[in-house]
Amino acid sequence: MEAQEVINKFRDTGALLEGHFVLSSGLHSAVYLQCALVLQHPRAAEEFGRRLADHFRNENIQAVASPAIGGLIIGHEVARALDARFIWTERENAR
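Below the sequence we write its predicted structure tokens.
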């Protein structure tokens, strides 16, 4: 998937946000990719997961781990594409 295809998919699903954003790093950005909005669409989630998995197809991946907050859907789709086990992590004493 080319970069412009990714941008178009985010734009088409309303997940490419434009304005002023203060990122968690403290940096500022005029554009923000809201992954949760694009991943609401199962076909898009499956495609992104499959495309990410393609980069690791020959690595004998047996498990995929992702954070529970923000990573469940894409982690699951990558694991499914690799026919691997899927696990997630959670923060202890989350703030």
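Strands lie at 16-22, 28-33, 63-67, 85-89.
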